[in-house]
C-alpha cells in the first residue's frame, strides 16, 4: 500500500512538470549548432562559393562521397569550381569535410529532414548543374552554373 502511494505521488509530480517531448513535425526541431546535418557551400559577397577547389575534402572523404569538377584559371593561378556534389546515399555525416576545409567553405545547414525515396535523388548538387537534387541545395542554378555546363569538356574531374 505504501509502495502504491509512493508510486502515485511520483506520477503526480511528473504530471506537473513540463513535457520533455516535442510535437515534431508540427513544431520544427532546431538541432544544436554543431549537429552534423545537410551541407551547403559558403558564398562570398557576390554569391560565388568560397570553395577554392583544392580537393582536400574529396580526397579525404572516407566514403568517397564528394565529387568535384573544377577547371584551371586562365591566368594559371588557382582553379574555378564548376560542380560540387555529395552522394547522400553513402555519406555517413562524419563531418570531416566541414571540420577540415581550410577555407570554411563547406558548412552544415541544420537541415536533418533528408528522407529520399529514389537512389538518384541522393546525388545532391551543392553547386553547378545536374544531379537528383534531393534537397533544396540541389536546385541551385546561376549564370555561372550554365557556363559550367558549357565548359564541361574543358573541366577537370578531380
Ligand atoms: S570545400 Fe574546402 S576542402 Fe573542399 S575543395 Fe572546397 S576549399 Fe577545398
Ligand atoms: S560528412 Fe564525412 S562521409 Fe560525408 S561527405 Fe563529408 S567527409 Fe564524406
Structure overview:
The chain has 158 residues and is α+β, with helices and mostly antiparallel strands. The protein has a single domain (35-157), classed as Alpha-Beta Plaits. The chain has four helices and six strands; from the N terminus they run αβαββαββαβ. It has helices at residues 2-16, 56-60, 96-100, 143-150; strands at residues 39-41, 66-72, 79-87, 106-108, 123-127, 156-157. Strands 5-3-2-6 form a four-stranded antiparallel beta sheet. A two-stranded antiparallel sheet has the order 1-4. The longest helix is centred in the N-terminal third of the chain and has 15 residues, at 2-16. The chain starts with a helix and ends with a strand. The structure holds iron/sulfur cluster (2 copies). One iron/sulfur cluster (SF4) binds next to helix 3. One iron/sulfur cluster binds next to helix 3.
CATH top level is Alpha Beta
**Over all CA atoms, what is the radius of gyration?**
22 Å
CATH architectural designation = 2-Layer Sandwich
Distance between the termini: 73 Å
- The oligomeric state is single chain
Biggest beta-sheet profile: 4 strands, antiparallel
Number of strands: 6
Structural class: alpha+beta
Can you tell me the residue ranges where pLDDT is under 50 for at least 5 consecutive residues? 132-158
**CATH fold group:** Alpha-Beta Plaits
Q: Which molecules other than protein and nucleic acid are bound?
A: iron/sulfur cluster
Could you give the topology of this structure?
Blueprint: H1 2-16, E1 39-41, H2 56-60, E2 66-72, E3 79-87, H3 96-100, E4 106-108, E5 123-127, H4 143-150, E6 156-157
Antiparallel strand pairs: 1-4, 2-3, 2-6, 3-5
The structure holds iron/sulfur cluster (2 copies).
